[in-house]
Design goal:
Elements lengths: L6 E4 L5 H10 L3 E5 L10 H11 L4 E6 L4 H11 L3 E4 L5 H11 L2 E8 L2 H6 L7 E6 L36 E3 L8 H8 L3 E4 L4 E3 L2 E2 L1 H12 L11 E2 L12 E2 L19
Parallel strand pairs: 1-2, 1-8, 2-3, 3-4, 4-5, 5-6, 6-7, 7-8
Antiparallel strand pairs: 9-10, 11-12
């Protein structure tokens, strides 16, 4: 039995009201998308309102897709971002430099369609790995999802993670909702779970009932799952290569920069 369920990252936040509700419900991190082709793109004006109000109350994560280092560094400084989610074709050296220049924790995200996608992520010595569904694999995802990087509303074959060797803390994403997140946690045992489309009434706009149901479903797994596959023992901002992880049968405690509680979106 584990004392706490996985952390929850709520992504696709575009306004302060949704952000405050997510934090009230216990969000470990909130994700704001800065990618012009996303229907969940967050404006600079709204992002400033969100980060100003919620600074030090949650992890403030900027989601980028193949942005330049200068663009990322400028956004991180302007908004006091504590996390960067790199969801494009960024390489290991790029991720390391982004961490160095911003002092933020780095999540390297990948879309999964086969075991090779899981193995490829092992090259990235960052603070977190995030695995997401690849767009266009089914007809049940977000409309127009074929060109999206994340937020597709599609799951992937979780059994592909059975061969994952990396000890980097894993955030599971891809079509998660209150209806399937408990099964996902039981099968994958991730450090954290991430949801965007599964808690929305429309892209970029959260549905309060769905959001509450998602948190309730995650909380209910606390007495039903073993400890996460990998948890970070210590993470220092800007020093992702020093990240270590364990998969002990007892509860582990992670120390990190405020406001993360018991941990390392």
């Amino acid at each position: 039995m584990t004392e706490t369920p996985p952390k929850v990252k709520i992504c696709g936040i575009t306004d302060l009201r949704d952000a405050e509700l997510a934090v009230e419900l216990g969000a470990w991190a909130i994700g704001m998308v800065f990618y012009e082709h996303s229907p969940r793109q967050c404006s600079t004006e709204q992002a400033l309102r969100i980060t100003t109000a919620l600074r030090r109350r949650t992890e403030l994560c900027g989601v980028f897709v193949d942005a330049t280092l200068d663009e990322i560094a400028q956004r991180a400084e302007e908004l006091s971002l504590t996390m960067l989610q790199l969801h494009g074709d960024e390489g290991p050296s790029f991720c390391a430099e982004a961490a160095r220049r911003t002092g933020a924790h780095v999540i390297k995200a990948a879309q999964v369609s086969g075991a090779g996608d899981v193995r490829d992520l092992e090259r990235f010595h960052v603070d977190f790995h995030l695995l997401d569904g690849r767009a266009g694999r089914s007809s049940s995802g977000t409309p127009g999802s074929r060109n999206l990087r994340g937020g597709t509303g599609e799951t992937f074959d979780w059994s592909l993670l059975a061969g994952r060797r990396s000890k980097t803390p894993l955030i599971l994403s891809g079509g998660l909702s209150s209806g399937n997140v408990a099964e996902a946690i039981a099968r994958v045992r991730p450090y954290g779970v991430d949801t965007a489309s599964g808690t929305e009434r429309a892209p970029g706009h959260k549905d309060e009932a769905r959001l509450r149901a998602f948190f309730d479903a995650v909380a209910a797994t606390a007495a039903e799952t073993d400890p996460p596959v990998a948890t970070s023992t210590e993470i220092t901002p800007g020093a992702a290569d020093a990240t270590t992880a364990t998969s002990a049968p007892t509860t582990t405690t992670t120390t990190n920069s405020a406001p993360i509680e018991g941990a390392p979106a």
